[in-house]
Amino acid sequence: MSGFLETIVTHVKGVVAQSKTRVSMADMRRAAEAPRVVRPFRRALEEKTVAVIAEVKRASPSKGDIDLDLDAAQTARRYEQGGAAALSVLTEETFFKGSLNDLRAARQAVALPVLRKEFIVDPYQLYETGAAGADAVLLIARILSHSQLGDFMALASELRLEALVEVFDEADIEKVAPFAPPLVGINNRNLKSFETDTTRAGRLSGHLPSGTTVVAASGIKETEDIRRHLNTGISSFLVGESLVRAEDSVGLLRSWCNVNGEW
To answer: SUPFAM superfamilies under this entry (predicted)?
Structure first.
């Protein structure tokens, strides 16, 4: 891991340890296993010609504060109105200023499936995710060992959470290949240098098995970015900062959802 990722992962492990002192692993597991209505995440993407996973995002280490006063419920409603296929909610508190309360508020406000975007490093967080009512969870291949990735994918499935497995390069793809995840996110941003290359997802998608639902993440700002990915066969996108900063996120989403792959 890069210094940035290592710093975050170390911090998150400390947060999880503190959380376990407030609510035990056993109690959190019971909460996660309680009956709940689950909204199909992958299916929501596949049903759209252009599927945008619109993100509730307050801040990031690379961009700083984006909108600390963001109303998660109101933002979710705008995204739904604009035609988003699903929501992503950042819940990491220190570096991204998010929370599980944002996730709960966003999901309650709309009928869309919701992804918890977090640095998942402990099974406890998967129980947290289920207990909070999420429909899907992000698993970052770069920060997990081979065995952790397999165990976390299996546990997520048990909890009726769909896993969006994030990769960045060929080494990550080799790591996830034995588990054949149906949902793979390709991050266009190098979390070591913060450089973004919006051609990365298109190049790497060819290394994934046919039938994989591929999500391009990071750096999606313009209609041309959507069109460029469509021309490589990618039709699902995770977008945060551009939508949060947009003066008219509803209009922007509507325009993207009507893009075709022709120049």
So the answer is: Ribulose-phoshate binding barrel (SSF51366)
Residue 207 · residue 177 · CB < 8 Å: no
Six token digits for residue 263:
């120049």
Predicted structure pTM score: 0.95
Token pair, residue 62, equals: 């690379």
For residue 60 the two structure tokens come to 């990031």
- Residue in 127, 139, 122, 107 with CA at minimum distance from that of residue 38: 107
User: What is residue 8's predicted lDDT score, i.e. its pLDDT?
Assistant: 92
- What does the alpha-carbon distance between residue 136 and residue 70 come to, in Å, rounded to a whole number? 22
Contact 200, 186 (CB under 8 A): yes
User: Does domain 3-257 match CATH 3.30.300.30?
Assistant: no
Per-residue tokens: 165: 């497995």
Range in 1-15, 83-97, 163-177 the model is least confident about: 1-15
Query: What does the block give as tokens for 249?
Result: 């996120």
Asked if residue 263 has pLDDT above 60, the reply is no
Average pLDDT over the chain reads 93
Q: Which of 231, 262, 196, 251 is nearest to 82 (CA)?
A: 251
Give the separation between CA 119 and CA 140, rounded to whole angstroms: 7
- Distance, in Å, from the CA atom of 242 to the CA atom of 252, rounded to the nearest integer, reads 9
